[in-house]
Structure formats: C-alpha cells, structure tokens
Amino acid sequence: MKRAVLEIDEEKIRENVRKLYRFSGKRIIAVIKADAYGIGAKEIAQILSDMEEVDSFAVACVKEAIQLRKQAIKKEILILGGIFPEDLDFIEEYQLTPVISDHEHLKILGNRDIKFHVKYDTGMGRLGFLNEIIKDERIIGVMSHFSSPTNREFSLLQVKRFEEMVKHYRNVQKIHMESSAGLIYKVPFTTHIRVGLAIYGEKPLKNYPIDIKPALRLKARIISVKYVPEDYPISYSRTFITKRRTRIGIVAFGYADGLMKSLSNKGYLIYKGKRVSILGNITMDMTIVDLSETDAKVGDWIEIVNEERSFTALAKDAGTIPYELMCNLSKRIERMVLKADK
Ligand SMILES: *Cc1c(COP(=O)(O)O)cnc(C)c1O
C-alpha cells in the first residue's frame, strides 16, 4: 500500500527545540506555516504542543490557524501574513493573534477586542511599519525579521533599528526577531525566538553553533526493476542513453511528490546507504535510478533524504533552498511520526 513516506522523528524534533532553547535562553514561537514547511503542521503541532519551551505557534493565515485550533492546539497562534476584514470573526472565535503591519490592518481591527503584535520593517523590505510608533492598548508583542542573516553588518543594523522602535513599547510581553539563522546574533533585548527550519533538523548556516539533529527521513518504494540493453533511452525526451547493459529501478516518487525536475540526470537517491544515480528525466510520479551496483528488488525502499543527506543538501543539488523543496512535498506522501519513548 505505502508508496512514499516521510518519517518524522519525534524525539529528534523535541531535542532540537530544547537545544534552541538552551542556546538562546528564550522560549520559542514555533513557525509551522505552509503545513510546517510541507512536513505536516498537524504532526509537528502535536509533537510540540506539550513542550514548556514552546511558547506559541506562528502560521501565515487564519485558515492555517483554524486547522490547528480544530485539533485542540491551545497555545497562542500568531498570524504572520496579514489580515482581511472577513478574517475578524474567525480571529475572535478561535482566539487568534494577528500581526499588524499596515494602517489598513488597524482600520480592519476597528475597536474589536483583539490583542495583536506590531511588526517593524527594519530592512527586510516586506511587511512592517518603518518607524512609526503605534499607540494601542491591545498590543502584546513587537517583532521584526532579518533579511540577510549571513550578513553580519546589515543584520546588526537591523537590530539597532529594531531596538530604537522597541524602546517605545514598555509594557509588551513579547519582543521577537531571531529566526533559525538569526539566532546567532543573540539579540539582547528580545524575549522570544521565532524559528522553523532548525526545529526540523536542517541547519540554516554552514557553521551553525547549535548541534541540531536531522529529524526527517523521506523514502519511496521501487515499483519495477529490469535490465535494459546498451544504447537504450531512458524516460521522456530520451535525455539519457545507457552506455552499457543497465539494471534500472523505477521509484514511486516524481516531481508531483516534490522531487524537483532540475535533479534529472544529475541527482542521486540512496539504496541501503549507497548512492544510485537518477537516470533521465524525473517524471510526475516516477523517477528512474541506476541499480546496477545493487541487489535491490521490487518493493524495497529508496531513500531521498536521511540522516546523512539533508533537505538542505538535496536542495543545493537542485539549485534551490530547503524551504522551497520541503514546501513542495506532496500531500500524498504518507506522514509517519516515529514516537518517542516517553
Ligand atoms: C518563516 C518565518 C520565520 C522562520 O524562519 P526559519 O528560517 O524557518 O527559522 C520567522 N519569521 C518570519 C516572519 C517568517 O516568515
């Protein structure tokens, strides 16, 4: 029955959160927007919901937040991606916390009894007020976002600009700026960190100072194995021609599952720790690999991402970032949480 599975290691995820907490000394706003970066917000929220280190959750929109409330998530849920007039009733009903970053958002709120965070654009060039002070009793948080955490000089400029604004908010409970990569700046005046990627075990920087552990394994099954002769074309448009008699395997995982077509003829998958090259074009539901050096048979599992090969490494091969690759993981991949022994 199972053709493709994403395994989520509960204990690794929880351990990563503890490490992020220990490093920063700040409680965590766990970013689980876009279905927890394609991993599965339901699964991730379940894993994190009883953790003391996790203060709250952040999603992009009201629809994502309602899904979490419907699965009995009780912690604060921050809406990062703006609000529209028709969201208001839901925000009240489900007790959600919008981020306000535009005067139009304030107008939409009117005088409803809704607590919110205010966002500052300190150099991201996306959402946020530039340098206006918003005076409103309902403000419970102030936030900003790094645009280029690998650039120390610009990041410190953003920190300085944010500090100037934060000064004007004496009574807010939460001040947050650091994302997974931004954590390295240890901003002295923030109270929380707002992280996604690192929780999931992907290091956002080469020399990341926190020893987070891979928590995801992506695998798919071989649905056919056969020999094809020398000089034989493989897959659409015949972009690969065999140089010798070749034992090929057809893996039940294609670009519809999230394997970027740019990996055609260039990436590799993994069979029992051994690299097997991708041959020819990746297709919608299937990918062809070279199994000549293996004894792999129909029904066996091929790994796409594992402890040794991260989404970050695969994304690099595909010419993209792990965020994009992960967000493309299709809904038809089964999510399996490997339970921690508690
Ligand atoms: C996605 C997002 C984050 C989390 O970033 P990571 O790099 O995954 O830690 C934090 N803040 C905002 C505003 C975001 O959009």
Describe, in plain words, how this protein is organized in 3D.
With 342 residues, this protein is of the alpha/beta class. The protein has 2 domains: 191 residues, TIM Barrel, CATH 3.20.20; 123 residues, Lyase, Ornithine Decarboxylase, Chain A, domain 1, CATH 2.40.37. Helix content is 23%, strand content 26%. It has 9 helices and 18 strands. An 8-stranded parallel β-sheet has the order 8-7-6-5-4-3-2-9. Strands 1, 10, 13, 16, 17 and 18 form a 6-stranded mixed β-sheet that branches. The longest helix has 15 residues. The two termini are 30 Å apart. The model has no long low-confidence stretch (mean pLDDT 97). The structure holds pyridoxal-5'-phosphate. The site of pyridoxal-5'-phosphate has 13 residues, from strand 9.
Which terms summarize this structure?
single chain; 342 residues; alpha/beta; TIM Barrel; Lyase, Ornithine Decarboxylase, Chain A, domain 1; eight-stranded parallel beta sheet; 9 helices; binds pyridoxal-5'-phosphate
Short description:
The chain has helices at 10-24, 33-37, 41-48, 62-70, 88-93, 103-109, 152-166, 311-318, 322-327; strands spanning 4-9, 27-31, 54-59, 76-79, 97-100, 116-120, 139-144, 174-176, 192-195, 216-228, 233-234, 240-241, 246-251, 268-271, 274-277, 287-290, 301-305, 334-338. It has 342 residues and is α/β, with parallel strands linked by helices. The protein folds into two domains: 10-200, TIM Barrel, CATH 3.20.20.10; 216-338, Lyase, Ornithine Decarboxylase, Chain A, domain 1, CATH 2.40.37.10.
